[in-house]
Task: inverse folding
């Protein structure tokens, strides 16, 4: 069984809109619904768990119904941090989990993920312990411990920008969350981080520039432009 | 004396245009001329050295004359790598250099650098050994030595994306270039790298998202949009 956790718990909006970005309407359809469509239509995805702030759950359910998202098997409450939200999603899966289950963690605000990336992530989690899509880093990245003077230039060929979805062997990933401290969960900056830190091997798969996370007005405009090109 | 080296030696164009990006015309004016304007009008810049492929020198001279760029004191040939080009520019300055001289290395394809950034770089080079503008890194950056599996997540608070211009104590910076091997120059990936590797202290100053390097068609469109807003 492959279950997608769709993270829609974020409350902020850098865009100054009246709602979190994943619920903004684009062509009369909320961004999260574009994301649902992809997972609903993907052959290898069996179930979807939605992590969402309680006050937005009715909204999500309404649009899930409207667009025929039948794979949703549960809702989990948003946590204090992104990783807490993931943990809440994992708990929601746990009731019916099997040893070969895979979990795929995705952001509702990344509505342009391709079927190929999802398939590659599932394959990676089966063959390794997990997988994440990455793209190359365009910046010349310097490291500075004190934020004042440069310590070193990082080797660009060794740097990769992480995207979502991140996929994991469910049992191993969930076990880690049950064993570590709440502080460790809170301090996790990337959902693969807690996995490889505890010995899981995370494969990198080919991401895409197009698989952007909508966080700024410019990102939203890019999404709208791409949509117009598709339709 | 503060001398700017304007790097215009690049020959490629990811944009598939008929010429290197720094010579593309925007509102009937080549991109490099927008860059010249800023350095020409900056009170703390005394001279400009242009590093350019010989076949484009007439073009540059013509437009420098047209837009009244009087600070240009010399032309240096483009080198095999960016750092070789910088070295060629440094040699062009050497003839008249004093102990307190500062060199400011900028890319012709960054026509939106602010006066403030240039001033901060000059101040940094006087108080430290050099300075470079940086902006925060937005990506979640992972490191992988083999390009297959993730080794670690880098601490975002310690990462900085380098921009131009980079400023240096001329004597110290030039001395390094005269002493290291040609291979070391060739392998230099950032112009501050060779400086701090040989003991120069490089201060980070506040860069700007707006100070973009024009490399793609999207960047060019952004530049055009900003220009329209300015005029």
Result:
């Amino acid at each position: 069984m492959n279950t997608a956790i769709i993270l829609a718990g974020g409350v902020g909006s850098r865009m100054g809109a009246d709602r979190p970005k994943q619920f903004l309407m684009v062509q009369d359809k909320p961004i999260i619904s574009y994301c649902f469509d992809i997972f609903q239509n993907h052959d290898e995805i069996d179930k979807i768990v939605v992590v969402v702030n309680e006050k937005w759950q009715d909204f999500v359910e309404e649009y899930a119904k409207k667009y025929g998202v039948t794979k949703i098997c549960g809702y989990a409450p948003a946590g204090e941090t992104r990783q807490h939200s993931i943990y809440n999603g994992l708990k929601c899966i746990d009731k019916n989990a099997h040893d070969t289950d895979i979990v795929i963690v995705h952001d509702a605000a990344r509505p342009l993920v391709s079927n190929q990336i999802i398939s590659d992530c599932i394959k990676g989690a089966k063959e390794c312990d997990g997988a994440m899509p990455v793209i190359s880093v365009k910046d010349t990245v310097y490291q500075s411990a004190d934020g004042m003077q440069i310590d070193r230039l990082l080797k660009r060929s060794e740097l990769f920008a992480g995207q979502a979805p991140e996929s994991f062997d469910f049992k191993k990933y969930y076990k880690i969350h049950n064993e570590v401290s709440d502080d460790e969960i809170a301090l996790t900056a990337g959902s693969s981080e807690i996995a490889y830190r505890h010995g899981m091997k995370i494969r990198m798969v080919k991401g895409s520039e197009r698989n952007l996370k909508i966080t700024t007005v410019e990102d939203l405009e890019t999404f709208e432009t791409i949509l117009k090109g598709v339709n």
Remarks:
- Chain A is about 35% helix and 25% strand.
- The first strand of chain A starts at residue 2 and ends at 8.
- Chain A has one domain: 2-230.
